Amino acid sequence: MAIVLSVGDVVDCVVRKVQANGLSVSLPNGRFGYVPKYCAQSLCDADGDFVVKEGDAVSLTIQEIGQPIRLGDGEASAPAPAPAPAQRVSVAASGPKVVGKIDLVQVRTRRRVTPAEESPVPEYKVGEVLEGTVSRVQDNGAYIMLRRGGQGFIPSYLMDKDSYGQPRRYRRGERVVVGVASTKGYIRLCGEDKFRKRERYEEFKPIISTALRYFPMMAFLAEHKLGDLFLATVADVSDDKIIISLPNTKTEGLVWRDEASWKRVDSAMDVFAPGDTVDAVLIGHDMAHYRLLFSIRQATPRPDDAWEMSDEEKQRMHDADTDSLSAAATYKVGDVVRATLTHERDYYLYFTMAGNGIQGYAFKEMFPQLLDSSGRLMAKPGKDVQAVVVQVGGRIGLCDERIWQTRRDEVDAVFLTEFAQQPIMKTVAAKIYRHGAEVTGTVTDLDGDRVVVALSKGGLGFMKKSEMLVAPEGDDKLKLGDKISATVVRSSKQGFELCDSARHALQKLRLGSPLSDVYHVGDFIHGVVVRSEGETALVTLPHGGNGVLQLSHISPGIDGSEPAMPSEGQEFDAVIINVGRQRITLCDMEKWKAHQERNAKRPEDYFNVGDKLTAKVLYATKAGVYVQIPTAGKGFWPVYNMLGYVEGKSKPMPRRGATVTTIVQKVTDKGVILCDETYYAQLQEEKETNSPAQ
């Protein structure tokens, strides 16, 4: 009969092999076991060496059943004399022998608890710099006895590197300086060089944060203009400011308390809460802190009794703002500053800003008074000049004040071109802009028939005036600084070849491209009604074809009157709400706004578990049926939630277009899970049966 062993049994084992870190033993049932040294302290002498030999019999406790079986002993156990082979008895006959308890903390940490460590270990905080002595060195790291008490471990990947780029070698007894990287579970340490590097990163983290906020803001301003209206969501609220999030742009903006309402507001938290949906108007940007500024109250007409905050209160509110990022953010475009010339290189002059030592740069032609007739720099380093800030970013762009006043458009174009050609911006543009991508940019050069455009997300675009759908009649029609939209045709090392968006769309339609390649949901359309019959009207589209406008997609009048269809020949502003294979569906502005608000809500805002719904079947699969739910998009009705479902057998599905009645079983962020009434009743019965009250 086989002997059954379990965790906690005390068995008599025979030592097969003595190793440096443990023992290999034979168990009564013929299997083999292993005894780690940290679980067999009573079998070791004062120096930590085993006192047992091969062939000795010991009483051990089973710690874990595995391959091999892991065993251990108590501190009071000792080697037992080897019994004669004929007198060996089974475990069941002899019964377990209690030799002591194993310290689980000692087993987990795999180290002996010495009397010196019985004293309480001081609490260490992440970021502290400590001194200690190396107590043990392993392949994956080293243990360090800390001077203030306790022991820490430094993994090899957190050690400082030597001249060959490899983790440095610690020696036992060496005194080291380390930093605390983590205190969860045990004290994890890191090398001094790595820790100092982390400190430097924390020091420059505000400047890094500045760059991360600067590029998205510049890209947003290149695509939108002041006065644009956005549907936004409140992300955070404090007493003096509101942080809003724009859904489709991944951009955040700031609304000061004085722009929150036309009525007096003592605290913004009394009016708004996180998650509220608001209309916001872009009113400017704060280059000092790299933030977009919005207004909520300007989205509605100004009443006669409008409230205005005093200038002194506005200044106090702005001075209390602690969101300053870096010294470079103290400058704004247009500021007049004093700068000191430091050196020149290639086409640039480099300056040091007076008072704070921030670095600035400029093109040589921006300071003609510092050059001779041949364009060479004649001024010596240390010369002070008065300049105007024309660019704020990783570096401060400077320009002579007289050139800024007389040729501002040219200066902006030059610096914008330089910004678009920075390596990091060109790398980002190469990953974003592909063939057929819609881009926006600013005109920075007009060279004959060629237009140079600085794209909003980096890189330069080139387009011919003769290939525009409506060619300008001269440079007075297209000026430096104008914002234009175009389509990428191909890319090269110099930049992107562009084509007029309207011309590109017409070419695609002629080649038989689907409507979804030309028109997109959310595009604003200004067209003319070519036909109006009953509850349907056809509106011309800008790139050819007509869009369908139904009476249900027209909002009621301002006075609450019934919706009215536009007449033939009337101009109409609409938004594309759906792009199908053969037709495009339109709606008016108010309906589109309501549609956006509805999409911003989650399914749990509409439904609760147990609600009864009437839905229309979209299509069926083997796994279940997808249905159209009113006001909440699609829902899924799994096959195993249907009446009469038997696993392994096919189940007849409802036909496409059929109307079904279902119950909400679960509501998730992605959608609604449905079931029929019988299955839901079974779930309720099981829930009541398994409840604690039963």
Q: How would you sum up this structure, described in words?
A:
By secondary structure, the protein is an alpha+beta fold. It has ten helices and 35 strands.
- Rg (CA only): 38 Å
- End-to-end separation in angstroms reads 45 Å
Query: How many alpha or pi helices?
Result: 10
Largest sheet: 5 strands, mixed, barrel
Given the helix and strand composition, which structural class is it? Answer: alpha+beta
Q: Rough shape?
A: extended
Strand order across the largest sheet = 1-2-3-5-4
Beta content: 25-35%
Model regions low in confidence, pLDDT < 50 over at least 5 residues: 75-119, 324-328, 470-476
Attribute tags:
alpha+beta, 5-stranded antiparallel sheet, 694 residues, extended, 17% helix, 10 helices, 5-stranded mixed barrel
In short:
The chain is 17% helix and 34% strand.
Helix and strand layout, with pairings?
Elements lengths: L9 E9 L3 E5 L5 E5 L20 E8 L4 E4 L18 H4 L9 H6 L19 E10 L2 E6 L4 E5 L19 E8 L5 E4 H32 L5 E9 L3 E6 L4 E6 L20 E10 L4 E5 L15 H9 L16 E10 L2 E6 L5 E5 L20 E9 L3 E5 H6 L1 H13 L2 H10 L5 E10 L2 E6 L4 E5 L18 E9 L4 E5 H10 L13 E10 L2 E5 L5 E5 L20 E9 L4 E4 L1 H12 L11 E9 L3 E6 L3 E6 L20 E9 L4 E4 L1 H13 L5
Parallel strand pairs: 3-5, 13-15, 18-20, 23-25, 28-30, 33-35
Antiparallel strand pairs: 1-2, 1-4, 2-3, 4-5, 6-7, 6-9, 7-8, 9-10, 11-12, 11-14, 12-13, 14-15, 16-17, 16-19, 17-18, 19-20, 21-22, 21-24, 22-23, 24-25, 26-27, 26-29, 27-28, 29-30, 31-32, 31-34, 32-33, 34-35
